[in-house]
Amino acid sequence: MARSLGVTRWDLLRPLDMLSSLWSTAATLPPVSSGAAVAYRTLFMTLRRLMVGRTLTVRLDTGDMVLTVTEFDSHLDVRRLAVGQLNDVRLTATDISWEDQAFERATLLLHNVPLRPGAPPVLVAAPVDVTLDMSSHVLDDVLRDVLPRWSGHVGDDGVARLRWARRPRLGNVEVDATVDGSTLWLHPRVLALGRRRWRLPPRAPSYPVPLPELASGLTLTSLRFGPNTLHLTGRLPEWRAEVPRATVEDILSQLSAVGRPLNLSRFGLGG
Fold this sequence. Notes:
It is a single chain. The protein is 22% helix and 43% strand. By secondary structure, it is of the alpha+beta class. The longest helix is centred in the first third of the chain and has 18 residues, at 34-51. The two termini are 28 Å apart.
């Protein structure tokens, strides 16, 4: 049985009661009042208190995702909150597992986030920047599909190396990487055989690696290497979701219970 965090139903629904009243009178213009600012801030801080520091199981259309939320923050401004504007919102999670994939860290930066009143209200962010840190073993998985004769790894020094899969001890090629649209380009920089190393000319041919199509219009914008890690960044031009009161109330109720999965699939928020 799931444990409660000790948050009463009145605490959870107090900001929703106020916002529902404001939204119902905002058929043509958004509500502008100190009461609206207080309600939006209370709702945001309630969500923050329920999420940060917890390990959550999030049920999506594509399967369950397990993660630990470490940050949910925004520079809230009273004047902007009065019209439902939350500024930029940052959400960070670590120790993420999803569909047999593991990610060390992920950050979503939602820019220019308003909650627009209506029937139902709509949450909008434009754009959304995504950052993923993952194990360098992912590079080997990608290369196995497109360059089966090669294996790839990122070392403790943050340098990516390609090796001949059949004879990995023969030597390696050190590479840099850039992203151009749907293609990852690997640029050879150094050839190493045993203890000998040769710096390759800048015009040495690069290797194109086609990237899979990403969901919901997400575009990969950069890739860089760190110690045993790949750092990926992407951008979604716009994200929006309808958030009727019943949906927000259900999400708050699920978050208030420890051990209960957060089911977003039935709300159309699960991708």
